[in-house]
Each structure stands twice: as C-alpha cells, then as structure tokens.
Design goal:
By secondary structure, this protein is of the alpha+beta class. Helix content is 27%, strand content 36%.
C-alpha cells in the first residue's frame, strides 16, 4: 500500500471524492449510520491516504491539539471492506501516528474508538479512559496514547 499525507488544499478533486466515497461506504452504508460526515473539519485535518493500484483503500484524518480534543487526534479510521484481511488498518495507523509526531510534534493523541475496536487501538499503545458512550447510535469509548 502506498501512503500519502496531505493537507486539505493539497487534495485533488478526485482524491477528495474517493476518500469521501470510502468514508460514506463504510460509516453510512455498511454501519447503517446516518450522521453528518462532512462536518467542516476536513479543511483543518491532515489526511493520511492509503492506496493500492490507484484506489484509496485506507484512510484517516489527523488533527493538531485543540481542534477536537486538548490532545492531537485521529479520526475517520477506515479500511475498505475487501481489504481488511491484509493488515492495512495497522499500516494506516502507524503512518498516522508518525504523521502526528512529524507534523504536530506531539505523542499525546486521543481518539473516540468504536468499542469493538478497542484491542486494535490498544495494539497501537492506546488505553481506554472513562466510560463508554453512544456516538451516532454506535458504542464508543475514549482512548488516549501518550
């Protein structure tokens, strides 16, 4: 998988369309969750894009401290359904953690994890904090890495 890191203004129209399509395919259609994906924050994000054969198959968006949380954050972690068996989620997370270190100069990162993915995030050094909660009707829990 080829990984590219881009600010919003560096995204091509095709890249933006493809990453929004992937996010919608997984978070809205597959997870049957109606929510506002286009939330006005993409412009402030660092976009971590994983591609295979010219197709976006993995993605996250990362934020500096103070945009979502006091800490830097990672969100919209997604891997195309037909690509999940290849460990691409781990690759995109490693690239996201490095991008936050390189661009935002911090190791303190917080995310809102879907609860069924806690072990995945724990494998990348995150620890749960607080109680679980519903976000858009899906059980989540806050996790932090420092």
């Amino acid at each position: 998988m080829e990984i590219r890191i881009k600010a919003f203004k560096e995204l091509s129209i095709d890249e933006l369309y493809d990453l929004l399509q992937l996010r919608s395919e997984i978070f809205v259609v597959e997870q049957d969750c109606v929510y506002q994906d286009i939330d006005g924050k993409d412009q402030k994000a660092l976009h971590i894009i994983g591609s295979k054969d010219g197709r976006i198959v993995a993605y996250t968006r990362c934020f500096n401290s103070g945009i979502f949380f006091e800490e830097a954050s990672i969100g919209r972690v997604v891997v195309a359904k037909d690509q999940r068996k290849y460990g691409l989620g781990h690759e995109i997370m490693k690239a996201s953690l490095k991008a936050i270190q390189d661009h935002f100069k911090t190791d303190s990162i917080k995310l809102s994890a879907q609860q069924y993915l806690v072990k995945f995030y724990e494998s990348h050094g995150f620890k749960t904090i607080g109680e679980g909660y519903l976000e858009d009707g899906i059980p989540h829990i806050a996790m932090i890495r420092s």
